[in-house]
Amino acid sequence: MFKQFRAVLSNIFLAIGGVLVALFLLEMVARFLPPPFQNPESMADVCADQTGWRGKPYYTTTVATGDIVHDLALNSVGMHDTEHPLTKQPDTFRILLLGDSFGRAHQVKESETAHQVLEDSFNSQTKLKAEVINSGVDGWGTGQELLYYRNEGRFYHPDVVILMFFLGNDVKDNLPGRGVTVGGQNCYMPYFVLNGNQLDPAPWLYAPGLTPSLGQSSWVQKSLSNLLGSLHHSSRLYNQIEPFLVTPPVKASMLDFYIGGNKTFDYALHLTVDLVKQLHSEVKQDGALFKVVLISPIDLVEFSRMNATQRQTVYQKLPVMKRAEEIEPPNQMLVKIFSADGIEVLDLLPLFSQYMNETSESLYLKGDKHWNVAGNRLAGEAIYHWLSSNGGKR
User: Does the pLDDT of residue 10 top 80, yes or no?
Assistant: First the structure.
């Protein structure tokens, strides 16, 4: 009996060994195959374990957006900014900006970005020695901004942390499965999960082929997701078979604010609000002030400027927008939600709308729909006046 057991055990180990050898050989072969993805790549970014992707250190290129052409240069940590040592100089007031492409603002020169306008405003109009650190990266969601703050941003010892929240996509950008392609391979963001309506403060790794969690989950599911997600980071074999495993991405859009009844969007909104609150809590624990700046897409700004006749034209093309007369506007709703948690919010929509009404000057680039030079200048100056007037500086 014992001999039979040993024989069975030996056969099992031989089978496992054979499988491992086969996988090892396949892994070696996979490393000589061309990259599996040929879709457009993010040239200004690199894969990053903590955030999925981030700016490529010392990346340079020429950017042409409409009539604006300039040389883009990222610093040693991939920021569209000058260099900032971790050690804060004495008597320096430090502001850390967290954000996405509106924060990075690669469409304009670094000297014309909102963060540089903000820094220049403090240094030219007050006796305060201010330093503004811009950590914006294209495509980042609130979860990635939280992870960046945890693992890097907090070590700059900022006095104020400002979350540049873009209404156009920051809610949906916290849903799992988002990534960028670098070197022919996909880099996925770690994502957060609500479990029983409570935020799990530790991120999950996305694993292609495995259904991501959108609510109730178990530690077994999380362990498997993190195991496969870690494997995806290092295995070329996994990368090669990924095209056969890809599932349709989880979708939601800003229009769901108006449509209503989309459980995925409702989940994403709840998740996003909890991520902002978590970020607020961690910044507060570090002894810094936390604030939110709400950025509205040009479509929402233009809609706010329309008269009744013009809105009827919009309703004919997008009937769902008729609900805009029945529900609280998304920007006002988020101001109310964040303020209830003690978070100070600057909503740029009224200011941008008023400025465009008075000057007829556009603040957004055509086609690209990011801020132009005037938009960045107005945002930077508005944030400066807001911080100066409400005690945002120490």
Answer: no
Q: Which pLDDT belongs to residue 20?
A: 63
- pLDDT tens-digit map of 175-186: 999 999 998 889
Q: Residue 178 falls within a domain, yes or no?
A: no
In 3D space, the residue among 359, 361, 329 whose CA is nearest the CA of residue 347 turns out to be 329
CA distance 52 to 35: 18
- Residue 52 lies in domain: 45-173+252-389
199: in domain = no
Q: For residue range 24-65, what is the model confidence (pLDDT) as tens digits?
A: 666 676 566 777 777 677 789 999 999 999 999 999 999 987
- Write out the chain in H/E/C secondary structure: CHHHHHHHHHHHHHHHHHHHHHHHHHHHHHCCCCCCCCCCCCCCEEEECCCEEEECCCCEEEEEECCEEEEEECCCCCCCCCCCCCCCCCCEEEEEEECCHHHHCCCCCHHHCHHHHHHHHHHHHCCCEEEEEECCCCCCCHHHHHHHHHHCHHHHCCCEEEEEEECCCCCHHHCCCCEEEECCEEEECCEEEEECCEEEEEEECCCCCCCCCCCCCCHHHHHHHHHHHHHHHHCHHHHHHHHHCCCCCCCCCCCHHHHCCCHHHHHHHHHHHHHHHHHHHHHHHCCCEEEEEEECCHHHHHHHHCCHHHHHHHHHHCHHHHHHHCCCCHHHHHHHHHHHCCCEEEECHHHHHHHHHHHCCCCECCCCCCECHHHHHHHHHHHHHHHHHCCCCC
Tens digits of per-residue pLDDT, 66-102? 777 899 999 999 999 999 999 998 999 999 999 999 9
pLDDT tens for 128-162 read 899 999 999 999 999 999 999 999 999 999 999 99
Residue 69, domain CATH = 3.40.50.1110
- Look up residue 26 and give its two tokens: 């396949």
Look at residue 86 and tell me if it is in a domain: yes
Tell me how many domains the chain contains.
Answer: 1
Asked if residue 279 is part of any domain, the answer here is: yes
Alpha-carbon distances, residue 193 vs 165, 239, 256 (angstroms): 20, 24, 20
